[in-house]
Write a structure and sequence with these properties.
- Helices cover 34% and strands 22% of the residues.
- A 7-stranded parallel sheet has the order 5-6-7-8-9-10-11. A 4-stranded antiparallel sheet has the order 3-2-1-16, with helices on both faces. It has a 3-stranded antiparallel sheet with strand order 4-14-13, with no helix packed on it.
- Helix 1 crosses helix 3 and helix 5 packs across helix 6.
- The chain starts with a strand and ends with a strand.
- The site of 2-succinylbenzoate has 12 residues, from loops.
Length: 369
């Protein structure tokens, strides 16, 4: 498989409703889509999950564009690959910039699967024919709005509710939710909003039987999380702190995390995601697939990854219609009663909807061998 062309689309899509976290609010989503073409004319699609601003991690849409155009495309163009695992090896000498790497690698994984007449799930070694999904709910203006939203998502069948918390919007919100929904699997995501000074407050969450608390402390920490986990009954799940298999190993060995959220972009691609998955499986650490408010392309990659056997807990990959009036793939991703059926078509399994894509494309950049 020789990579002959890469097309980059700079996209701008507006979310149906704003999504608020402890670090900021998303309404317009700007991101990159990549299409890679081989010497036989097969194509594969990837998505960069970097946001417009460096809130979640240090990457941005523009740093990704720079990395992809000036460093990653020159490495892959006109190059022959026997397997997509070789892409992450090739990128390894370049430090970090994981979301940029994952966008290119993801397009090549899709291409590889299509060329070999495999679904992306099969190419990764996944076996599930449907995956269980939950939903992530942003911070709301008031708790009664949140309760009504959750009621709707429970009725739709989502398998667990994840709510965002931040200082001043935590114990009382979770208490109200737990009272309204005594038996619903519930978890909280702090996106790094607390410090060890908040340990007494975080301990109060133990009474609500949360499945986990996601990333309570600093985005680059694994030491304080280990201290915190010793004081908490609720399992800690790391998101922002884990960028690689090595990070996962260190966090697990230290006792900083009992569950890991795998995001393909954050860890630099599907090959690294699979390595983290395999390590966690060997070490009794359940994983689940996180989300970055992706369009259908990134969503399709998440679905395929989630077919691996240690994705035991429901992920954040909800229906396309939860985010978008119109997604950029056909069919759109649909969660029914909390399950997404894994598509049977080769590669990512959904067709790019070029007409829809064109409507949301701001600029394109084309590279040819
Ligand atoms: O921490 O998982 C997170 C959205 C933006 C940035 C970070 C996160 C999230 C979500 C939403 O929780 C996940 C999704 O629905 O795609
Ligand atoms: Mg998170």
């Amino acid at each position: 498989m020789i990579i002959k062309e890469i097309n980059i689309r700079k996209m701008k899509m507006t979310m149906k409703s704003p999504f608020s976290t402890s670090f900021g609010t998303f309404q317009d989503k700007e991101f990159l889509l990549l299409e890679a073409t081989d010497e036989l004319g097969n194509t594969g699609w990837g998505e960069s999950t970097a946001f417009h601003s460096p809130w979640y991690n240090e990457e941005t849409l523009e740093t990704n564009l720079h990395m992809i155009r000036d460093f990653l495309i020159p490495l892959v163009l006109d190059k022959e690959f026997k397997h997509p695992d070789e892409v992450s090896e090739l990128f390894a000498p370049l430090r970090k910039n994981n979301m940029a790497k994952a966008a290119v690698e993801g397009a090549i994984w899709d291409l590889f699967a299509k060329r070999n007449k495999l679904t992306l799930a099969e190419a990764l070694g996944g076996t599930a024919d449907k995956i269980e999904v939950g939903i992530s709910i942003g911070i709301q203006k008031n708790t009664s709005d949140l309760i009504e939203l959750v009621r709707g998502f429970v009725a739709e069948g989502y398998k667990r509710m994840k709510v965002k918390i931040k200082p001043g919007h935590d114990v009382e919100v979770i208490r109200a939710l737990r009272e309204a929904f005594p038996d619903v699997p519930l978890m909280a995501d702090a996106n790094s909003a607390y410090t060890l000074d908040d340990i007494e407050l975080l301990k109060q969450l133990d009474e609500f039987n949360l499945t986990m608390i996601e990333q309570p402390l600093a985005s680059d920490d694994i030491i304080d999380h280990a201290k915190l986990q010793k004081e908490l009954k609720t399992p800690i799940c790391l998101d922002e702190s884990i960028h690689s298999l090595e990070d996962a190993r260190k966090a697990v060995e230290l006792g900083s995390t009992k569950i890991i959220n795998i995001k393909i972009g954050r860890v630099g691609g599907l090959t690294e995601s699979k390595k983290i998955h395999d390590y966690c499986m060997e070490n009794g650490i359940p994983v689940w697939c996180g989300g970055m408010l992706e369009s259908g392309v990134g969503r399709a990659h998440n679905v395929a990854l989630t077919t691996l056997p240690n994705f035991i807990l429901p992920g954040d990959t909800a229906s396309s219609s939860r985010y978008w009036e119109e997604d950029v793939i056909t069919p759109e991703v649909i969660a029914e009663d909390g399950y997404i059926t894994v598509p049977l078509a080769y590669g990512i399994g959904y067709e790019p909807n070029i007409e829809a894509m064109d409507r949301y494309t701001v600029e394109q950049f084309h590279y040819k061998a």
